[in-house]
Amino acid sequence: MNPWIFVAGVVFSTVCADLLQSHGMRRGGANWKVPLSFVFLATSFFSFTQLLAVADLSFSVPATAASIVLETILAKLVLKENVDLRRCLGAGLVAAGVFLLSH
Fold this sequence. Notes:
Protein name: EamA family transporter
Membrane topology: Multi-pass membrane protein
Number of helices: 5
Largest sheet: none
Domain EamA: 7-102
Subcellular location: Cell membrane
Distance between the termini: 23 Å
Helix content: over 70%
Radius of gyration: 15 Å
GO molecular function, one term: transmembrane transporter activity
Structural class: mainly alpha
Strand content: under 5%
């Protein structure tokens, strides 16, 4: 099976889980968003384990590091957080560091 399908599943599920959990916890955690975030976390974990079954670890971890950058962008757009240049550079450095460590 194509490993990029699992990469997309990990990235999409992780980003959705984090956004739902962050937004739900702002509202006190009693609404439907926090439980739904656990479903996305389970989907992310399943996708990652399946990705490890079809691809090397050196491919799997850097490919899923894209979620860090995407989460930072969506934190600004969806959650209306104050994302400044320093936070963007930090997310980029984390993603670059994960990529460099894998090679």
